[in-house]
Design goal:
Elements (H helix, E strand, L loop, with lengths): L1 E4 L5 H14 L6 H4 L1 H9 L3 E8 L2 E13 L4 E11 L8 H15 L5 E3 L6 H9 L15
Parallel strand pairs: 4-5
Antiparallel strand pairs: 1-2, 2-3, 3-4
């Protein structure tokens, strides 16, 4: 298994993996139906990356990484969203390998802090983040504008 950055050729595989993620959370939209244009936009950007874990030609995990400038501190920070491993690969170190690749990317690019938000009920995910050095420091709020 290897972790790498997604390419345009990965579009359908990434969207299908996002479908599995969305179904798990009973989302109203399937990314394979609504996310294609956003995938195309992200792949072209320098400040957003999709890290994917690939095993024998199959994508088995992913995380979306956003680079955000921070005026108050005078540096950039990373933000991770949509961190997901397919059901058959959970507990096998895939998430750790993805997170290690993200940390390595940050070290190489002088990114000093990574933040992520997680659904409040995902206790297993919270344990994973803590095991990988994460600390609970903030409370996140969501504002639905529709």
């Amino acid at each position: 298994m290897r972790v790498r950055l997604a390419t345009p050729a990965d579009k359908n595989l990434v969207l299908r993996l996002f479908d599995e993620f969305s179904i798990l959370f009973h989302a109203k939209d399937l990314p394979s139906l609504v996310g294609g244009d956003i995938f195309d936009e992200i792949i072209k950007r320098d400040d957003t990356k999709i890290f994917v874990a690939e095993d024998k030609g199959k994508l088995v995990g992913l995380a979306t990484f956003y680079l955000l400038p921070n005026i108050r501190h005078g540096w950039h920070r990373g933000h991770v969203e949509d961190f997901f491993t397919t059901a058959t690969y959970r507990g096998k170190g895939v998430g750790t390998q993805i997170f290690t690749a993200i940390k390595d990317y940050c070290h190489r690019n002088n990114i000093k802090v990574i933040k992520l938000d997680s659904e409040k009920d995902l206790l297993a995910s919270h344990k994973f983040y803590e095991k990988n050095g994460g600390k609970y420091t903030e409370k996140m709020f969501r504002f639905d504008l529709e």
